[in-house]
Write a structure and sequence with these properties.
Structural class: mainly alpha
CATH superfamily: Metal-sensitive repressor, helix protomer
Radius of gyration: 19 Å
Shape: elongated
Order of helices and strands: HHHH
Number of helices: 4
CATH architecture: Up-down Bundle
Distance between the termini: 47 Å
Helix content: over 70%
CATH topology: Methane Monooxygenase Hydroxylase, Chain G, domain 1
Length: about 110
């Protein structure tokens, strides 16, 4: 019984990926905590930049800090992408799920303008 249920979950997972439904991967995203921490730091940094603007800091100083936030976000995106390649994509390819590859290509296009 439990084995059959597991197969059903795998199908559900592929189905959810194919239809863009938000879902939990359980243990799959090993870097989830790291990503959440990175995002929290970037949010804090961005709040600081906003305060700098409100307090009338020099524009070039604001731009430098803004660039640092953008860089932090891009690095976070790389962590997410690598995680996705190592886990989700490996599973998708094994399951013969071509739509997952197409979805990833689309996401890369949006992420890297």
């Amino acid at each position: 019984m439990s084995e059959h249920h597991h197969d059903h979950h795998e199908h559900d997972h592929a189905y959810m990926h194919a239809h863009g439904i938000a879902h939990s991967h359980g243990h799959v995203h090993e870097n989830q905590k790291a990503v959440v921490n990175r995002l929290a730091r970037a949010i804090g940094h961005l709040e600081k930049v906003k305060r700098m603007v409100e307090e009338g800091y020099d524009c070039s100083e604001v731009l430098i800090q803004l660039a640092a936030v953008r860089s932090a976000l891009e690095n976070t995106g790389k962590v997410i992408l690598k995680d996705h390649m190592r886990h989700c994509m490996v599973d998708a390819v094994a399951a013969g799920d071509e739509s997952a590859v197409n979805d990833l290509c689309e996401a890369i296009d949006k992420f890297m303008k």
